[in-house]
Amino acid sequence: MAARPRPASRHRRRESAARRRVLAFRPAVLLLAVSAALTAAACHPPLPGTERAWREQRERDVRAALPAGARAGFHGLGFFPWDPEMRFDVALEPIVPPEPLQIAASDGRQRPAHRVGRLRLRFPGGVATLAVYQLDDMRQSYPDNLFLPFRDAGAGSDTYGAGRYVDVERLAGGLVRVDFNRAYNPDCAYGIAGQCPITPAENTLAFAVRAGETMPPGHG
């Protein structure tokens, strides 16, 4: 008896239907990926040219200061996305007379300093009061130089554990400008020899400051 011809396989029909679903699903996945990328771009303003130039110069400075043997393994600096809300023009509340103190340094010694003022800042993550210092060993050569170290809640994971520094620019009328987009790690974070001040406890923030330089590779 001749074998009866087999009807179209149900398995084959299911396979074709599944293939059609996959082909229909791919454009949806692509659309979601594009949408997510556009949303991320919208959340983070584009990096201004001045900031790009600053970051490039900062990277060149770090590279130049590295020991010769460490330069080959240096692959650049990491930064959080630029955020205009992380730049502040605020009044420096002076401390009169300045208060003497000792700031611990990375080499185990103490650096004499004076607490000269305070800044009250409203970050996206919360409100903070930060002390501003002058290091005594720099005061004679740079009498107007102000030193602002800080440590945020991401220290030890997203940011350097001993804290970061941010420059304080004096403006007219008793105001200063502090831009945390330009917060930078101490030289010691990159293996550059120095007597790097460690952030005093009073300048430790209870929230993350996701601006400026990120944790250097190998310190996580």
Question: What does this 3D model show about the protein?
Answer:
The chain has helices at residues 10-43, 49-65, 136-139, and strands at 87-91, 93-104, 110-123, 126-135, 147-150, 164-170, 175-179. By secondary structure, it is an alpha+beta fold. The chain folds into 2 domains: 13-43; 49-203, no CATH class. The strands form 2 sheets. A 4-stranded antiparallel sheet has the order 1-7-6-5, with no helix packed on it. A hairpin with a 2-residue loop joins strand 3 (110-123) and strand 4. It starts with 9 loop residues before the first helix and ends in a 41-residue tail after the last strand. The relative contact order is 0.16.
In angstroms, what is the radius of gyration?
27 Å
Helical segment count = 3
Estimate percent helicity.
25-40%
Total beta-strand segments:
7
What spatial form do the alpha-carbon principal axes imply? globular
Number of domains: 2
Mean pLDDT: 86
Which strands sit side by side, in order, in the main sheet?
Answer: 1-7-6-5
